[in-house]
User: Which sequence fits this backbone?
């Protein structure tokens, strides 16, 4: 059972992080996109954010089960650190992507500024995800 949970945990981490890399080339094309192409790019961003959110639920649930079955306490440094970063990333994600994508769909917006904000949010969120991934993989003794 533990091995399957590790597998589910790893796959959900891959599915949670991987699709964000598909968005990078779209960021370069987004400023000049019009009409249906703009909608397709924004729909892709929305899909990736939703996918990441839902696979994040699987990731957290499987992680909690792994903690429970494996006997890891909450005070384990890499677990505690990961949860601190996780809660910070949840607050960040709630404010970073969806409102910006919504504003890009509205007429009369400053597309350059919004694409720059979306780009900054994407790279910052990937950094946060890699910090969590690093904590999970390397399991550092933070204290």
Assistant:
């Amino acid at each position: 059972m533990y091995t399957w949970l590790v597998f589910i945990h790893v796959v959900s981490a891959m599915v949670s992080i991987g699709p964000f890399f598909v968005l990078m080339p779209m960021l370069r094309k987004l400023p000049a996109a019009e009409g249906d192409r703009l909608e397709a790019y924004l729909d892709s961003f929305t899909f990736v954010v939703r996918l990441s959110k839902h696979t994040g639920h699987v990731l957290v649930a499987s992680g909690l089960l792994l903690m429970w079955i494996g006997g890891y306490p909450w005070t384990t440094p890499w677990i505690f650190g990961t949860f601190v970063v996780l809660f910070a990333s949840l607050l960040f994600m709630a404010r970073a992507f969806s409102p910006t994508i919504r504003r890009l769909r509205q007429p009369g917006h400053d597309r350059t500024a919004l694409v720059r904000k979306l780009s900054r949010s994407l790279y910052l969120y990937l950094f946060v995800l890699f910090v969590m991934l690093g904590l999970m993989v390397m399991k550092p003794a933070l204290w």
Remarks:
- The helical segments are 2-17, 19-29, 35-70, 77-96, 98-105, 111-138.
- The first helix runs from residue 2 to 17.
